Each structure stands twice: as C-alpha cells, then as structure tokens.
Amino acid sequence: MDISNHVVQPEGVGSPDGQIDVSSSIQRSGIAVKYGQQLKIGGIICDSMGSSVFPWTRGQLTAGEVVYAIDYESGTPGTSCLAGQGVDLFDLCVATSVKIKVWLTLDGQLVAVTGIISPGTPYYQNWVKSFATLDVDPSASSPHSIECAIKNVDISNGDVSLRGTFAITSLHTPPFPVSKVIRCHWCGYKWEVPREVTVLTCPSCKKEIWVFDFSHRRGVM
Ligand SMILES: [Zn+2]
Q: Global pTM?
C-alpha cells in the first residue's frame, strides 16, 4: 500500500478546512429567531453587591419581598407586545440562596407557578412547547403583557438571579419599532431613544445606565 502524507491548504473562511464554525459545542436547545421575530431577554439579579449600571441589578431580596423581572433592552418591568404580535417564552433559569417562589402572569392573570425553589440547586426549564400568547389569542387581536414575579418565602434575605428568554413574533408584518422607552434604573424617569442605544445618561438624574440591544440578533446565540 502506498501511504503518503500531504498538507491540506487552508481555503476560504476559517482553517484548515474552510468551515465558518471553528469551534462548536452546543449542548442546550437553541433558539432560532426567524424573519418577523425579535429576541427578548429579561431577568433580575438581587445580590449583596447591589446595583450596577444594568437596570436589572439591585440589592438582596429581603424576607417576604416581591420583585419583578426587568426587560434587558429597556429597563422596564415585564415584557409586552402590541396587537398584531405575540410573545413566546422559551426558557427560564433561576439561582437562589434562599427559598423563593416564581410566578408568571399574562395580562395580570396567573398562568404559571414554579412552586418553591430551594437554595443551592440552579433551576432551569427549557420547554418543549414555548409559553405563547398566540395560544390564547391566535389572531393577535390585542396587546398583551407578561410579568414574572419572584417572592422571597424564606426567613432571611438572600441573593437571587433569574433570567428568561422570549421572542416577539409579528403576525401582520408591521415593522418593529425603531425606538424604545427607557426607564431609569436610579430615578424611574422614562424617555425614548433609538432601539440600538445601549449606554445612556439619564436626562433627569444624570446617572449612567447600560442596557442591551437584541434588534439584529438572529440564529442561535
Ligand atoms: Zn435617572
């Protein structure tokens, strides 16, 4: 048998075989945002480190206190969609140092509860079927809001982190808004900015806040 060695010359993007994906080790179920959809992420971090420039950060969750998840792009509590759109919740992850309870409301109505989540073990749900407003309003005839609340049901204060991934789906193909209303993390002032803006100084209290921009995200991230 004639055995010979030869060197493969790199071609195209990446190396040595021209592939775009140089490394890939996807373990989780991915989220693919399609045409007519936009990614949304919301959550809250309650930690002894206290608030940072990100509006979803704050101090520890005190015993008996209730707090709401914050939209990562606008700093406002909850997630909402306009008439003609739907919201899909894909996953939810929680880590906590105290016993907590998490519940979801759709248009103010209780729709899902996690039960008691105990400290020490991260909680993660990635549903086979997303939680979707289009399941209750298939024609998207009305605007909807989803809120995610967390209550500290323990006897002491604690560190709590929660994050959920959504998509907004447009049924009737109006363009997505090119602006967003920011809620100041520090003083509550609200003002409108282009959706791509991520680093802001509040016109009212002059403090800086940082938010995210997912308006151009596609595929698995
Ligand atoms: Zn402010």
A: 0.80
